[in-house]
Specification:
Strand order of the largest sheet: 1-2-4-3
Order of helices and strands: HHEEHEEHEEH
Helix content: 40-55%
Protein name: Type II secretion system protein
Organism: Pseudidiomarina halophila
Number of helices: 5
Strand content: 5-15%
Structural class: alpha+beta
Largest sheet: 4 strands, antiparallel
Keywords: Membrane, Transmembrane, Transmembrane helix
Oligomer: single chain
């Protein structure tokens, strides 16, 4: 009977060992499956995160700073942080670079392979590169026909305008510091300084004019004074 009890105890130990091994293997398998499921969702979350930034950039005409603006303005429900570490932002002209710390080099390389345009650094940092939306880039490159109150610079030239021989018509008011042309038809003009080799006009009004080095106003005053003296001289019977 003692031998029988020994066999039963041995069988029980073996059974418990097998059961413990199976439980350990199942836990490891479950943990791996959970990690795989979590990682598989990262690709979708990363794309949603990048899309939200692009939408914000296109609508607000700037990058979100801080990233919490994506949540407060309703572009995304929550900020995606794959390992819980915060994102660091670096904006350079038309490029936004996001960077976060990965636990290991393997994690960093895995995520960089899943997200288009992502890269890694030597210290296990994962970088996401987000370019300025093409729609916004095109807006900034072309002169707008209709004014945009949020971006008045869209209606301002950033280079010389060459009309290539064509006319500019129906100008209500023209503000300019310097006007150079071969011919101009103007109903009314207010000029601080006018230089011309020839002026053909039916009426010309100026507060001050200098012709050939002479002040026209002073000349007119001198002529008026001479005329007054001439009239006075004639009234006295002289200056015939």
């Amino acid at each position: 009977m003692n031998h029988r009890y020994g066999y039963i105890l041995f069988e029980l130990v073996v059974a418990l060992s097998l059961l413990a091994g199976l439980m350990l293997m199942s836990q490891q398998w479950f943990a791996r499956q959970q990690a795989v499921a979590e990682r598989s969702s990262w690709e979708v979350e990363a794309q949603s995160f990048i899309t939200a930034i692009e939408r914000f950039w296109l609508s607000e005409r700037r990058v979100p700073s801080p990233l919490s603006e994506l949540v407060t303005k309703g572009y995304i429900a929550d900020i995606w942080r794959p390992w819980g570490a915060p994102w660091q932002l670096e904006a350079q002209n038309n490029l936004l670079r996001l960077q976060t710390q990965a636990p290991t080099v393997g994690d960093a390389n895995w995520l960089a392979r899943q997200v288009a345009g992502a890269s890694t650094t030597a210290d296990n940092q994962v970088q996401l590169h987000i370019w300025q939306p093409i729609g916004l880039a095109l807006r900034e490159r072309y002169l707008h026909r209709v004014a945009d109150p949020l971006a008045p610079e869209y209606s301002a030239m950033a280079s010389d305008l060459d009309m290539n021989g064509f006319n500019i018509r129906n100008v209500a008011t023209l503000h300019t510091r310097y006007l150079l042309g071969t011919q101009a038809t103007i109903e009314q003009a207010e000029l601080a300084n006018l230089r011309s080799t020839e002026v053909d006009t039916t009426r010309f009004s100026a507060d001050e004019a200098i012709i050939a080095g002479y002040d026209v106003g002073a000349v007119i005053q001198r002529l008026q004074l001479l005329e007054q003296k001439w009239q006075a001289c004639r009234a006295q019977g002289g200056c015939q």
